[in-house]
């Protein structure tokens, strides 16, 4: 079984005063606070959430 591709996502801008759906995407990615990083599976659903909040996160290929 092949290992699933992972990407590292880091929150670099605050969610304060942002649209509720953008806050929900950040929470859905598992990000809790500024400069918090998580490793998530590289799926179309995750890529869509990242695209929606691309101005708040930094993405690194792992």
What is the arithmetic mean of pLDDT? 95
Specify Rg, calculated over alpha carbons: 11 Å
Give the biggest sheet: 3 strands, antiparallel
Which strand order spans the largest sheet, edge to edge or round the barrel?
A: 2-1-3
CATH C-level class is: Alpha Beta
Uncertain residue ranges:
none
Tally of DSSP helical segments: 2
Query: How many extended strands?
Result: 3
CATH topology annotation: Ribosomal Protein L30, Chain: A
Name the structural class. alpha+beta
CATH 2nd-level architecture:
2-Layer Sandwich
CATH superfamily: Ribosomal protein L30/L7
* Total domains: 1
Order of helices and strands: EHEHE
Helix fraction, binned, reads 25-40%
- Roughly what fraction of the amino acids lie in strands? 25-35%
End-to-end distance, in Å? 19 Å
Shape: globular
Structural write-up:
With 62 residues, the protein is of the alpha+beta class. The chain has one domain: Ribosomal Protein L30, Chain: A (2-Layer Sandwich). The chain is 29% helix and 26% strand. The protein has 2 helices and 3 strands. The protein has a 3-stranded antiparallel sheet, with no helix packed on it. The longest helix is centred in the middle third of the chain and has 9 residues, at 20-28.
What keyword list fits this structure?
62 residues; alpha+beta; Ribosomal Protein L30, Chain: A; 3 strands; globular
